[in-house]
Every structure is written in structure tokens, then in C-alpha cells.
Amino acid sequence: MDCAERQKEIERLLAEERKASVDLLARRFKVSEVTIRKDLAQLETKGVLLRTHGGAVLAERPELVIPHLTRAGENPASKEKIAREAAKRIKDGEHVLLDAGSTTLALARALRGREVTVVTNSVPIAMELAGEHEKANVIVLGGSLRRSSLALMGPLAHAQLGTIHCDRAFLGASGFDNRTGFCCQNLIEAETKRAMMATAREVVLLADRAKFDRTAFAPFCPLRDMDAFITDAAPPRQAADAMRKASVEIVIAG
């Protein structure tokens, strides 16, 4: 079995078991642990898995992943309202982080013509602000491309984020859980979002009301780590109470 075939089998095994140890994989494929670790490193750069001490876990549940184009078509009017409200928080000359997502893409549109610096890991956001006559300075993070979200993520993105400081970070989410807070679909993308949060003076979550009807695979933002939440309708009572207890500012876009 060559390297490509072995990695395909590792992907299949993780899809079934959700996790696997280096020792188990080495015995299963009759190769050294060094070889398995190299396989896992390559698969991690593709966003397939997240390496752990002694093994790896599945980065996302493929059956739950909603492609970028599908998400972009959900509740567009609500996302535009949220984006306009979020844009009001941004002053000309500020450095802001926009992560990959359909609501943050709407925010990028709301910032067209503004003199701001936008740091992003989103290919669509970079393209949105790439026009010849745009005034925004755009810094694109490096990393591995996750095709379903068109996000750049992983160690390269984390390394760059460790060298900058931004005024505000605006993050989208795929779902919400009262216990763990906001979540997304991929563990590596969740790590990248947390790295973004660590660079910013203010962390703002952007999500429409539909996010409270679903959870996602990878929690990334407990309520204690965010400053404000902008949405299009009042959150469910239990979620709203938890946010207020954590001193999160709740803003309903008009």
C-alpha cells in the first residue's frame, strides 16, 4: 500500500471511529510510527484531522458540513442587517479581523469604501475588498484551504496571528450550545478562530437567529471570552440570560 492509499484508509478509519492512536495505525498498516506521524501531519494540513498526543481525532463530521455557497444563500437579509450594525462599531483607521463566514462576508461588503485594515483568512472576503478603487488595506492570512468554507487555517495562520494585534475581531458561527457557547464545523478552523480572538481588544460574534436552532461539531467561543453579540432577533431566553451573566453586550440589529 502506497502513501496515498494509506492516508485514504486513515481518513476512512477516522470517519468511522472519530479518533485513532499512532500505535494502532502503525500496527494496522505495518509501518513505523514515524511514517504514521508523517501521514497524520499531511492530513492535518488538509483539514481532515487534528493531531493529539499519541494520535489524531476527526476534524469535522462531513455529513454535517454545509458548503459556503449554501450558507451564503441562507437568510441574506438578516445577515445584511447584522453586517450594517457591526460596521457601526468600526472606526476609520482601525485594524479589524474578519474570519471566514457568510455573515462576515456581508460585513466586508458593508466596509467597502472605508479606510480600515482588514485581516482575514477568508478568500471571498479578500476578493470582496480587492477592487482597484477600494480604500481598505487587506492582509490575508496563510494556511491550508478548507474548500467547504474557503477559509485558510492551521499552523501557518496561527503563526501569523501571533505577530499582530487588532482592535476588533468579528467572528461567525455555525451553531450555539448553552453549555459551550458558539461552535463551528471543523476543529482546526475552531483553533484558528481562537487564535484570532487572542489577538483582538474586542471580540464580537455575528450570528442570525437560525444559529440557535443548531449546534456544530467544534466549540470555539465560550461566552466568557466574547465582548458583544450582534444578531437579528432576541436570543432564546436561556441563551440571553447566560450572555448577560457573562457580561456580553447583546445588540439586536434594526
Explain how this protein is built.
β4, α6 (102-110) and β5 form a beta-alpha-beta unit. The chain has helices at 3-17, 22-29, 33-45, 68-72, 76-87, 102-110, 123-128, 155-161, 187-199, 237-245; strands spanning 19-21, 49-52, 55-58, 95-98, 117-120, 137-140, 144-146, 151-153, 166-172, 175-177, 181-184, 200-206, 218-221, 228-231, 249-252. The strands form four sheets. The protein has a seven-stranded parallel β-sheet with strand order 6-5-4-9-12-14-15, sandwiched between helices. It has a three-stranded antiparallel β-sheet with strand order 1-3-2. The chain has a three-stranded antiparallel β-sheet with strand order 10-11-13. α2 (22-29) packs across α3 and α8 (155-161) packs parallel to α9 (187-199). It has 254 residues and is an alpha/beta fold. It starts with a helix and ends with a strand. It folds into two domains: 3-59, Orthogonal Bundle (Arc Repressor Mutant, subunit A), CATH 1.10.10.10; 68-252, Rossmann fold. The chain is globular and about 60 Å long. The longest helix has 15 residues, at 3-17.
Tally of individual helices: 10
Structural class: alpha/beta
For the record, the count of structural domains works out to: 2
Uncertain residue segments = none
Radius of gyration: 19 Å
* Main sheet summary: 7 strands, parallel
Could you tell me how far the N terminus lies from the C terminus, measured between alpha carbons in angstroms?
Answer: 59 Å
Number of DSSP E strands: 15
CATH class of the largest domain: Alpha Beta
- Encode the helix/strand succession as letters: HEHHEEHHEHEHEEEHEEEHEEEHE
| Apparent shape | globular
Instruction: Could you tell me the CATH topology label of the largest domain.
Output: Rossmann fold
Write the CATH architecture name of the largest domain.
3-Layer(aba) Sandwich
Lateral arrangement of strands in the main beta sheet: 6-5-4-9-12-14-15
Percent of residues in helical segments? 25-40%
**What is the residue-averaged pLDDT?**
89
Percent of residues in β-strands: 15-25%
